[in-house]
């Protein structure tokens, strides 16, 4: 694996052209969804004192995505 990292802040669509290119070229990739989830984890801890895990939040986001609720205003 490459020591170079591709970071994309776009979370919808999950796999952007930038991320696809990074994966294809063997780069470590951080998606916008990853950033979104880590931001949510920090916000949850700051505002409520509740600790959660990446996988717990990722599961919730995936459920919302499948139901069409994710990203809806």
What would you note in describing this structure?
The chain is mainly α. The chain has one domain (5-67): NAD(P)-binding Rossmann-like Domain (Rossmann fold, 3-Layer(aba) Sandwich), CATH 3.40.50. It contains three helices and two strands, in the order βαβαα. It has helices spanning 17-24, 32-48, 54-67; strands at 5-7, 28-30. The protein has a two-stranded parallel sheet with strand order 1-2. Helix 2 (32-48) packs across helix 3 (54-67). The longest helix has 17 residues, at 32-48. The chain is globular and about 40 Å long.
Quickly describe the structure.
The chain is mainly alpha-helical. The chain is built from three helices and two strands.
Q: What is the helix content? A: 40-55%
The biggest beta sheet reads:
2 strands, parallel
CATH C-level name: Alpha Beta
Could you give me the name of the CATH homologous superfamily?
NAD(P)-binding Rossmann-like Domain
In terms of per-residue confidence, which ranges show pLDDT below 50 for 5 or more consecutive residues? none
From the N-terminal CA to the C-terminal CA, the straight-line distance is 38 Å
Spatial strand arrangement across the major sheet: 1-2
SSE ordering: EHEHH
Shape: globular
What is the count of distinct domains? 1
CATH topology: Rossmann fold
Mean pLDDT: 90
CATH-defined architecture: 3-Layer(aba) Sandwich
Strand content: 5-15%
Computed CA radius of gyration, to the nearest angstrom: 14 Å
Count of distinct strands: 2
Number of alpha- plus pi-helical segments: 3
Structural class: mainly alpha
